Amino acid sequence: MASTLVRQHLPYPPHPAPSHTAPPRTRARDWAEIQERMLVPLYEAVYERLEVGAGTRLLGLGCGSGLALLLAATRGAAVCGVDPDEERLALARERLGDGGLESVLTAATATAASGFTVVTAFEPLSALGTDGGADALAERLTAAAALAEPGSPVVLAGWGPPERCATSAVLRVGARLADPMCSPARWRPCGRDDLERLAQRAGLRPDGSGRVACPFGYADMDSAVRGLLSTGLFDAAERATDAVQVRKEITEALHPYRRQDGTVWMENVLRYLIARV
Fold first, then answer.
1. What are phi and psi of 227, to 5 degrees?
2. What is the CATH T-level fold of the domain 3-161+187-217+269-276, as seen in this structure?
3. Terminal C-alpha separation, the chain
4. What is the pTM of this model?
5. Which of 264, 143, 161, 266 is nearest to 215 (CA)?
6. Cis preceding-peptide flag for 180 (omega within 30 of 0)
7. 8-29 burial, b for 16+ CB within 10 Å, e for fewer?
8. Closest residue by Cα to residue 36 from 16, 62, 18, 14
9. How far apart, in whole angstroms, are the C-alpha atoms of residue 75 and residue 51?
10. Which residues of 154-188 are buried (b: 16+ CB within 10 A; e: fewer)?
């Protein structure tokens, strides 16, 4: 079962400077150990619907530390991942095991990474309204689609309606503190037709969608704050203010979701779109 981490031949914008809350390695660990698992219901719902398994060649855009790839691999799929964050990629290599990983592919050898039957972009889209955000995302999807077989599904994910996403109240803290900065890391709700418009912009044909309950649950307040900071959605806020202020305001925004036993629980609904190459 082959697995590969691909990076250089797909267009990515320059990765924003990491937050100074914690070193990049620590932030990547927080993503892998706290936050990434919150999206497992999304991964599983899509894999079930597309019948991902033996014979599937899957390319994961924004693969992070590789949990979605690992879940696909356990179903028998051959997986490939791309992510601009080198620290997350290092953790993905650890998670997937050295035996199933090849070297990072470059533009000169990109033709070796083709013939994919499924492409996923699971990290919820939230920057389509920022300057150049939609253009960059469409360019990335177009490049990925060129590596897929005709008719293959490309899966995009986005936040559901704000009234059904408790986390949106916390993410607005980052957007408010970052203003008037305009950053691709700033969060905003995903509009009803944003995913369809993005797919069409990338030359893809929308072919079905779904919604998935993805509650964010944390063992305690510190884990909740660390997990949310690891998303990168508060980096612009930290550059505009400071890490202490951002952490304080995130904690305050989380208080309504803190239970008597100290755990933090936020109900969310995410939406996914299936488009065809």
1. -60, -45
2. Rossmann fold (3.40.50)
3. 25
4. 0.86
5. 266
6. yes
7. ebbebeeeeebbebbeeeebbb
8. 62
9. 9
10. bbbbbbbeeeebbbbebbebbbebbeeeebbbbbb
Q: In what order do the strands lie in the sheet with 57-61?
A: 3-5, 78-82, 57-61, 118-125, 153-159, 269-276, 205-213
Instruction: Encode pLDDT of 146-190 as tens digits.
Output: 999 999 999 999 999 989 999 999 999 988 888 754 444 455 667
Q: Could you tell me which residues come within 8 angstroms of residue 14 by beta carbon, excluding any fewer than 6 positions away?
A: none
218: part of which helix (H) or strand (E)? strand 216-218
State the Cα–Cα distance between residues 56 and 168, nearest whole angstrom. 34
CB-side neighbour CA atoms (13 Å) of 208: 9
- Token pair recorded at residue 31: 């993503």
Per-residue pLDDT of 83-130, as tens digits, reads: 888 899 889 988 887 533 333 333 333 445 679 999 999 987 654 444
Pairing between β-strand 78-82 and β-strand 57-61 as defined by DSSP bridges = parallel
Domain regions of the chain by residue span: 3-161+187-217+269-276
**Band (136; pLDDT cuts 50, 70, 90):** confident
Residue 212's identity, in one-letter code, is: V
Residues 6 or more apart whose Cβ sits within 8 Å of residue 225: 247, 250, 251, 254
